[in-house]
Amino acid sequence: MSEVVLRLTDVVFRRQGKEILHGVNLTVRAGEHWALLGPNGAGKSTILGFCGAVTHPTTGTVDVLGGRLGRVELQALRRSIGHVDPRHPLRSPLTIREVVLTGVTGSIDTPPRWQPTPEQLEQADELIALLGLDGKAGERWPTLSQGERGRALIARALISDPRLLLLDEPSTGLDVAAREQLLETIDLLTRTHPRLASIVVTHHLEELPETTTHALLIADGAVVSSGPIEQAVTTASISRAFGHPIRVDRHDGRWSARAARTRSTEVA
Ligand SMILES: Nc1ncnc2c1ncn2[C@@H]1O[C@H](COP(=O)(O)OP(=O)(O)OP(=O)(O)O)[C@@H](O)[C@H]1O
């Protein structure tokens, strides 16, 4: 079996007298691609905060890349985790190439007096091409579409050669074509980076990459189902998690969900 990249054991999280997570278990291994699914307020971002070595659990343990949160230096751990956040707080008009290079420095802006090595520049350009942004390396952040920004941020995350890639609602704000291009790119990573493990957070089954292997479905801070995606994502589990009768389908590797309605003709 592949090595464990991430393990959450009996994780409980309390804030302001409220229990937000009630004992979550999750084991992610190298090469696995997880979806973290659930309705608004279920606790997805909170779980992603542990995976990204950003927050500590109240009780329970979180082991990320062999280091236990609370015992290892978080900054060092974070360098091995690629975190793609669509709300990336960039203010200055960096070019795509510069944005990708901020993945080397782990900063939002290019640090003063920092110069990339020729190898880092070459790697940035290779990733820019891999992410389908060929010929756009010199274009500036404010002029980019949401889809281009998303792909630039994935290149930024990959330049530090992470073992774990976290994608927080990567399709938010994308039109259908941009979403499909992004999903194709994420699928491509399974071939170019076969050891990489990933976790995609989403509310929408339609936004799952075809290459998703596992899913953790949560509702109200508790696990509804977890495991290989075909077992974890079913009409019953999704209906339970979202508190509504939802029919789940899969066609050509892609998932879809819609309300399970009884047609009036069938009722008659
Ligand atoms: N630091 C905090 N203090 C108090 N409550 C918090 C804190 N962090 C999260 N919560 C609460 O915990 C619950 C889970 O939040 P979380 O953001 O993890 O859910 P989510 O599944 O990511 O939701 P969404 O899909 O809306 O982004 C919410 O009710 C939220 O208000």
UniProtKB/TrEMBL annotation:
<feature type="domain" description="ABC transporter">
    <location>
        <begin position="6"/>
        <end position="245"/>
    </location>
</feature>
<dbReference type="Pfam" id="PF00005">
    <property type="entry name" value="ABC_tran"/>
</dbReference>
<keyword id="KW-0067">ATP-binding</keyword>
<dbReference type="InterPro" id="IPR003439">
    <property type="entry name" value="ABC_transporter-like_ATP-bd"/>
</dbReference>
<dbReference type="InterPro" id="IPR003593">
    <property type="entry name" value="AAA+_ATPase"/>
</dbReference>
<protein>
    <submittedName>
        <fullName>ATP-binding cassette domain-containing protein</fullName>
    </submittedName>
</protein>
<dbReference type="GO" id="GO:0005524">
    <property type="term" value="F:ATP binding"/>
</dbReference>
<dbReference type="InterPro" id="IPR027417">
    <property type="entry name" value="P-loop_NTPase"/>
</dbReference>
<keyword id="KW-0547">Nucleotide-binding</keyword>
<dbReference type="GO" id="GO:0016887">
    <property type="term" value="F:ATP hydrolysis activity"/>
</dbReference>
